[in-house]
C-alpha cells in the first residue's frame, strides 16, 4: 500500500489545484459542474468512452500481478520450506555423494547463520518406480532418502493432517499423489525402485505406507516422489554415511525465506569443506526468478499491446471533448461576449473534465479488474488445469495495481482533457454565436510554417541520430517526421491534398520498406507498436486527403438513383470534419491493425508447422532422455531390437553438463549448458538457421564439429522478440565459449552454426570431445525413427519399459510441437480478444459522433427533408456515414495489418511457408466490429430520421 | 416499382370534393394548426382560407408569432395541419403519406430559408444539384443544370466554392438557385432576406422577381420586411393565425 500512496497524492494534488484554479472566480466551476450534471445519459456515454483506457491499464497491472503471484505460488508449493540446496555436481549433471559429516558440521554452526532457519540431509536421485500390483511404471520419479527428525517441513496426509514421516519402516515408503496416480499405487502395495548412480544401478523393494498430498514436503519439485528413510537408500546404494544433498531453509518461512537467499549462501559457504567443490543452489529464488522472467515477457506483451487501445482511448477523449465544445459553441460565444475570458472557458471545461476523469477512472479501474478476470479465465482454458503444477491462475491484485491503474488512467484522461479544453476554447465570438463555420485559410499562417519547420527539423535530426547510433526507432520516426513536417510547411504553397497524400504514402512505404539502413531482425515489440502508430498515421493522411476520390468511387459503386444524394451527403460530412473523422478512424484502424497483424502472424505460425516440425525433429519421431546414461548404447539397443521391430533408426548421444562463459578466464557470467556429443559415424539432419559461410552446406558444418574447437549451438540462443524466450543466453555465429573440463583445464569452442532445434539445448560437438574432456561415452540423449504404421506413443512406452533401469523417457516430437502450437494459438487468440476491447473504443467513438451529428445537423436535416429527402434517405445517410467511417477504419487497419504481416513474413517466415492471409478470421472480426458500430449508432440515426422537418426548421422563426 | 422510387402524384388522384383549381396553385380551406405546448394547446392557424393563383408572387406578413411560418410549413407539407385541407397544384396534401409529400416537394416545390440552409460540406454546385439527384436525374445532367442555375443567379464563378467561402448574399443566391433548379411549380421562401443587409436584400428580391418574370413561377414569401412585401404582387397580412387582410401593394 505504501507504494500506492504517491499516485493517490498526485491525483489529490491535481484535483486541489484544478478546484483552486477554476474555483477562484466560482462561475467557471459552477458552469463546469452544471454542464456535468445537466445530461445524465450523456454523462453515462462519455464515461463509458473514457473508462476504456483506465480499464486496459488496470487489467494489465492485474494480469501481471496474477502471473507473478501464480508462478510464486507454484514455486512455493514445489519447494515448500526449502530455499537452498547444497550438492556436489557430477559432470553428467547428476549429484555426487559426500560424507554426512558435512551436514553434521553445518548443523552444529546453524547458530552462526542468522538468516538460516534449518538444514537437513538427504540422499535424492532420479529413479524408476514399478508397481508390482498394477505393473505400471514411472521412469522419472525422484527417490528421496530423508531423516524424519531433521527434514524440513511436513507431509500432508490425505486428511490434511501434518506428519514429519516419523515411524516409517526401513522397507516402507511414502509416495505422493502424483506417483500414486502414475502407477496406480495403493497403500500396502509393493514397489520396485531402480536408481542410477555413477557406480551403476541399484534396486530396492518397498511397501507403500502412506500416500500424501502433492503439497508440503510431498510436492518436492512438482515431481512424482517416493520417500524412504535415509538409511534405506544408503543401504540400497551401499553408501552408508553418505548423502548427496543438504536442503536449507531460511528465516522467513515458505514465502519470505527466498528473499534472504544471498545472505544464506554467504553464511553457509564457509562451513562447507573446500573439496569436493560444493554448489549452493538458490533453488527457490532462482526458480522464482526464471519463471517470473518468462511470465513477465508474456505480461509485458499485454501491457504493450494494451498501449494501442490506450492511444485509441486518448483519441476518443479528445473527440468527445471537441464535440462537447462544438455543441456548446453558441453558449460559449455568448459567455465570451458577456465578458468571460478564454481562461474561464478552459476552467469550466477542465472542472467538468475533472468530474468525468474521476468518475471514469474509478469505474474503469473496476472494469479493468473484470477484464483481467475474463482474460485470465481464458488463459486457464488455454493452459489447462495442469498449468504451474496444478496451481492454475489465481486472480490476484494489490492495492497498488488498482490505485496505479486509477491514477494513470486519471492522469491520461485529465491531460487529454486539458489539451482538448485549450483547443476548443479558441473561438471567434461572432462565429460561435451565429454558428457560422470557420473560414478556410488560404495562406500558411506563421504558426503552420513554424510547426512544419520544427517537425521537419526534428525528423531530420532524428534520422541523423538514427544513422549515427543505429537507432531502429529513429530510423523510422526520423523520415516520418521529416515527411510530415515538409507537408505541413508546404501545405498552402502546393495543394494540401498532394503534399499530405505524398507524405502519407511515403510514411507507409518507408515503415514497410525492406530497404532500410539497419536490419530490424532483432527489433523488439516496441518497434512493432511504433510502426503500427506510424502506419496508421500515414494511412489516415492518404484517406483523409483523398475524400473526393473516395466519394467518386463510392458514387460510381452506388448506381441506384435514390442512393446518390445519400452517398454524397454521407461522405461529404465526415470528410469535412477531418479532425473528428481522423480521430475516430484512427481509433478503429489502430485496433484493427493490431488484430490483423496478430492474425497474420498467427496464420504464419500455423502454416509453418510442417517446416517447424522438420526443423525441430531433424526427421525423427521420438526423442529420448535417460536419467542414467546407458553405456555401450549400440549393444544395448541391439539387445532391445531383438525384442521389437518398432525402431528403424536410432542414435545414442553422450552428454556432459558444463558451465560456459564468454571470457577465456571464465570470469563474469557463466551459463549452465551441455556438451552434446555427436557420434563420429553420424551426420545429423537437423537444419541450421545460421551457418558460418566457410561451410558450403549444413552437412559440411556438421562434419566440421569433429574438430574439438568447433560447435553448433541450439536455437534457444536466438532471441525471440515477439514472445517468451526459453533460452538463458544469446549467441551469434563466431562467438567463442569457454568451459573447464574434468581436469580443470579451460577449453574453447567457436560457434559455426545455429540450429532451429530447441529440444536438446547445448553445444553440439563431437562425441570424442565429450569423451576426451569428461570421460563420458555412455548415451543419455536418443533419437529414434519408427517403422511406418507404428503408434509413436506405444513405441515410446515400449522403449521406456525396456530401459526402465536407466529411467528412459521418450517424447513424441510431433505431439509436443502440436501441443506447443495449440497453446501458442490459444495465447494469440487471447491477445486478440484483449485487443478487441479496443474496438469498443472505436464503436463508442462512432456512437458519440452520431449523437453529436444528429444534434448538430438538425436544421440541415430539416432542410434536406424539405428538399425531398425521405425519412429513409435521412436514415440511410446517417448509417452510410458511420458505415463509411467504420468500414474505412476497418479496411485501413486490416490493409496495414496485412501489409505489416507480409513484411514480417518476408523477414521471419518466407523460407518456411507460403504467405497466408487469414481472411475468414479478418472478415469475422471486421464484421463484428462493423455490426457493433451499426448497433451503437442506429438509435440516434433513427431518431434523426424521425424528426419532423418543420420541427427541425422551427428554430428559424 | 421499388419502394425507394419516387412517385409523382397527379391531379387525377385528387378526391371528387376538391374545389376548382384550374387557375389556382394553392388552395387552403379552414386550415387549423394546433401545437401542444407545456402550458396547453396553442392554435397557430385558426381556420384559415387562402387561394394563390399560378404565377402569383405573394408575400405573407405579420407580427412575430402570428403563424406565418406555420402557414408556409403546412402549405408545403413539411408540417401536418390539425384540420382543414390544402391542395397544391391540384394535389390534396392530406391524402399523401409522408413519403408521398416528400416526393411531391422534390418534384413540385422549391425552398428558400432565412439561414440559407446550404449544406456546409458541399460545394455550391453540389448544393444546387442535390434536389436533382434526389429526384433521380442523371448526375451529369444534374451538374449541367446546377451550373446553369448558378449562372442564372450570377454565381457561376463560385460554383466550386463551399458556403463558408461565400458572403451572405451569395449564399442566399445559391439557395435560390437550389430552389429553382428542379423547375418547381411553386417556391416557398421563409424570410429570405432576414439575414441580409438592405442592399443585398434588394438584390435578392430583384433576383426573385426577375426569375419570376422569366419562368412564371409562383412565390410565397414569408417576410416581416415591408420593403420586401411591397415588391410582391399581393400581400397577405396575418394576425393570430388568421388572414387579416390581403391587398395589392403600390410599387414604391
Question: Which features characterize this protein?
Answer:
heterodimer; A: alpha+beta; six-stranded mixed barrel; B: alpha/beta; four-stranded antiparallel sheet; disordered N terminus
Q: Can you describe this structure in just a few lines?
A:
Chain A has 957 residues and is an alpha+beta fold. Among the domains of chain A are: 1-79 and 291-438, no CATH class; 84-281, no CATH class; 647-786, no CATH class.
Descriptive notes:
The complex is a heterodimer of chains A (957) and B (252). Chain A has 957 residues and is α+β, with helices and mostly antiparallel strands. In chain A, 57% of the residues lie in helices and 16% in strands. Chain A has 30 helices and 24 strands. In chain A, strands 15, 16, 17, 18, 19, 20, 21, 22, 23 and 24 form a 10-stranded mixed β-sheet that branches. Chain A is elongated and about 105 Å long. In chain A, 48% of the residues are buried. The mean pLDDT of chain A is 85. In chain B, the strands form 2 sheets. Chain B has a 6-stranded mixed β-sheet with strand order 6-7-8-3-9-10, with helices on both faces. In chain B, strands 2-1-4-5 form a 4-stranded antiparallel β-sheet, with helices on one face. In chain B, strand 1 and strand 2 form a beta hairpin. The model of chain B is unreliable at 1-16 (pLDDT under 50). The interface between A and B is large, with 39 and 43 residues.
State the end-to-end CA separation of chain B. 53 Å
First-last Cα distance of chain A? 62 Å
Using the CA coordinates, give the radius of gyration of chain A. Answer: 34 Å
Count of DSSP-assigned helices of chain A: 30
Strand content of chain A: 15-25%
Global structural class of chain A: alpha+beta
Average pLDDT across residues of chain B? 84
In the residues of chain B, how many domains can be counted?
Answer: 1
Q: Sum up the overall morphology of chain B in one term.
A: globular
Order of helices and strands of chain B: EEEHEEHEHHHEHEHEE
In order across it, which strands form the biggest sheet of chain B? Answer: 6-7-8-3-9-10
CATH architecture designation of chain B:
3-Layer(aba) Sandwich
CATH topology (level 3) name of chain B: Rossmann fold
Low-confidence stretches of chain A: none
Got a strand count of chain B?
A: 10
Strand portion of chain B: 25-35%
Instruction: Report on the biggest sheet of chain B.
Output: 6 strands, mixed
Largest interface pair? A-B, 39 and 43 residues
Overall geometric form of chain A: elongated
Q: Going by CATH, what is the homologous superfamily of chain B? A: P-loop containing nucleotide triphosphate hydrolases
